[in-house]
Amino acid sequence: LGEGVSELNPKIKSELTRLRNENLQLRAFAAKRQDDAVDQLESKLDDSWRLSEKYKQEYLNTKDQLLNTQTDLRTTEKKLDNCMDQLRHVEGERDFLTTELDGAERSLKETQDDLESTTKLKNELLQDVNQLSESLQSKKDLVEQQQIQLEELTRNFSA
What we know:
By secondary structure, this protein is mainly alpha-helical.
């Protein structure tokens, strides 16, 4: 067909040339579009690979943080268990000491009551002693007066 074109109508010849040129341009355009598409796909693949690596690293970091957090949680739970044991022990001691304190307070109250009774008895006894001392003194005074009177009577009878 290419050799016999010269015999054809010049219109067909020019149309054929135009179509051949257009076909070349379209093939060049398609090849460029194909290269652009490959470049875009390579770029998207590179972006996807970078994102994949980034997410993988974030996943690994998050996994490590989770493991550390779980370890910390177990440690904290053990510490909490120890603290709870200590709390129960301290509460037991507090209950024991409260019981002891209640007993000591009752004993103190009884001792204070006994002291108050003893003080009252002592005051009554002191009052009785003072009364007896006064009574004794008055009887001594009376005996002295009677002795003086007896001595006077004895002198009077002897004279």
